[in-house]
C-alpha cells in the first residue's frame, strides 16, 4: 500500500512575491489564485506562532502539478542562499519542459536572470539548461529535440 496518491505541488518561499510571479508567468505558468493565510492552520503546519503568509498558486498549461510561491508577512523571511551552487544540499531545481529553450533562456535574460552554466545536449534527445531566477531559484528548462 502506498501513502502517496499523486504529486501535487512544490512550495517556494520568496521575499518578492510579485517578481517571482512575473518570472514564472513569463515562462508560461498561469496564476491559479492568490491569497493570505494566517491563524491556527498555518501556525500548526509551519510551526511558526503568529505566522501570516501570502501565497500564489501557479499552474502549468497542461494542468499538472502546481508551484506555490509564498511570502511570509509575519514573521519576516529568513535569508537563504541565493547564489547556492547546483550541488548544495536541498531542493536543487524546479524543472519545466519547454518548446523553445533558446527563447525561454533569452526571455529570462531580458528580465535579468542568467544561465547557471550553459545549454547542454543529451544524446541528441534533449537540450537542457539551468536558469537562476528570482531569489536564487534554479529553474531547469528542458526541450525534447529527438
UniProtKB/TrEMBL annotation:
PROSITE patterns, per the entry: VOC
Protein name per UniProt: VOC family protein
Species for this entry: Nocardioides astragali
Entries under Pfam families matching the protein: Glyoxalase_4 (PF13669)
Coiled-coil ranges from the UniProt annotation: none
Keyword terms of this UniProt record: Metal-binding
Family annotation (InterPro entries): Glyas_Bleomycin-R_OHBP_Dase, MMCE/EMCE_epimerase, VOC_core
Keyword S-adenosyl-L-methionine: no
Amino acid at each position: 500500500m502506498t501513502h502517496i496518491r499523486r504529486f501535487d505541488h512544490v512550495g517556494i518561499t520568496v521575499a518578492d512575491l510579485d517578481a517571482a510571479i512575473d518570472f514564472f508567468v513569463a515562462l508560461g505558468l498561469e496564476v491559479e489564485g492568490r491569497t493570505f493565510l494566517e491563524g491556527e492552520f498555518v501556525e500548526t503546519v509551519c510551526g511558526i506562532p503568529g505566522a501570516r503568509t501570502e501565497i500564489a498558486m501557479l499552474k502549468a498549461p497542461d494542468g499538472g502539478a502546481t508551484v506555490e510561491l509564498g511570502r511570509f508577512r509575519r514573521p519576516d523571511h529568513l535569508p537563504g542562499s541565493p547564489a547556492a551552487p547546483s550541488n548544495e544540499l536541498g531542493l536543487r531545481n524546479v524543472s519545466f519542459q519547454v518548446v523553445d529553450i533558446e527563447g525561454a533562456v533569452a526571455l529570462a535574460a531580458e528580465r535579468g536572470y542568467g544561465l547557471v552554466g550553459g545549454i547542454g545536449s543529451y544524446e541528441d534527445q534533449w537540450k537542457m539548461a539551468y536558469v537562476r531566477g528570482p531569489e536564487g531559484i534554479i529553474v531547469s528548462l528542458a526541450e525534447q529535440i529527438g
